[in-house]
Amino acid sequence: MLTTGTIATAVTAFIVTVSLVEAAILWRRRQGTENPYSWKEVWLSLADLAGRKLSVLLPLSLATPVFHLAWEHRLFTVTLNSALMVFLLFIGQEFCYYWYHRASHRIRFFWATHAVHHSPNQMSLASAYRLGWTGKITGSAVFFAPLVLLGVRPEVVLATLSANLLYQFWLHNDWIPKLGWFEYVFNTPSAHRVHHASNLDYLDANYGGVLIIFDRLFGTYVEERAEEPVRYGLVHPTTTANPIVNQFEHWVSLFRDMANSRKPWHAMGYLTMPPGWAPDGQGTTTEELRAAAKQQRSGAVEETKGATEDTMQGDLQQA
Q1: DSSP string, 136-195
Q2: What is the pLDDT of residues 264-295, one digit of tens each?
Q3: CB atoms < 10 A from the CB of 58, how many?
Q4: How far apart are the C-alpha atoms of 261 and 219, rounded to whole Å?
Q5: Are 66 and 142 in contact (CB under 8 A)?
Q6: Three-state DSSP class for 197?
Q7: Got the DSSP string for 277-293?
Q8: In angstroms, rounded to a whole number, what is the distance separating the alpha carbons of residues 306 and 53?
Q9: Fewest Cβ atoms nearer than 10 Å: which of 21, 35, 176, 181?
C-alpha cells in the first residue's frame, strides 16, 4: 500500500537521480571549456537535501501552530468536490506563493534562508532542491495561512505547495530554450533563469511558481534577452564548498549587522528591509545599485558629449 512517506521517498529518489544524470552529462560536455561543470554545486545541494530530511526529526516547525490557529478560526470549510474548487485552490496557492517568494527576496530575514537557493553559480537541476535548512523556523507558513483561514485543510495546503515545488524542478537548467506561447502564462526555464540571475537588469524578477501571470500583473516580470547573458549566483558570489558556511553565512552577516547597529530601529531595519539596506541610505539594495548604475551611465554620456564638443570646436578653429 502506497503511503505519503513512500511517495515522497520515491519522488525524492527520482529527482536526485535525474539531477545526477544531468550533472554527469554537463560535466562531460563542458570539460575543457570556459565554463566547466562543478560537482561542488551538486554536493552542496545534496547536503542541503540531507539536512532538511534530518530536520523532520526535530519539532521546530512554525507551520503547525500557525496553521492550527488559522484552522481553529476558519471562516468556511472548503470541500474539494469539483474541478472549479480545485482550480480556485490552485490560483489561491499561486497567489500566496508569489507573495511568499517576493518577500523572501525583499525582506532580509526571509532572504537569509532563501539566499541558499540562489547561491549556485551554475544553473542545473540540482539547484532545485537546495532550499536552505532554516525555512521551517522562519515562519514562512504565514503566507499560506490565509488559505487555511478560508477553510482549506492544512495538509491540503502543504500538499499543493509540494506540487508547486515539484513543478519547479524542471525549471532549473540552462539548456531548455524559450517555449513560445507557454512563456506568457507559465513559469518556464527561461523565466526562471532570469530569476536566478545576478545581472542588475534581472534582479528581483519572476517570482511565480507554476504561473507567471502574477509577475505580469504586479510588474515583476522580466524577459530573458539574448544580448544580456545570465550570470548565475548572488550579487556577491559565494564560493564555499562547506555546507555549514553555505547554509548560515547570511544569518551570520545579518546578526552581525544587527549587533553593530547603534540604534534599535536600525537593527530592525536590517531585519525587515531588503538585502543590502543600510541606515545611511548608502547601501546596496537593488534600487540603490540601479540608481548608481544610471548615474554612472549619465556621467559617461555627459563626458562623451563634452569630449565630442571639444573635438568639434578644435576642428572648427583649425579650419
Answers
A1: GGTTGGGGTHHHHHTT--HHHHHHHHHHHHHHGGGG--SSS---GGGGGTB--HHHHHHH
A2: 999 999 999 999 999 999 999 999 999 999 99
A3: 9
A4: 34
A5: yes
A6: strand
A7: --TTS----HHHHHHHH
A8: 62
A9: 181
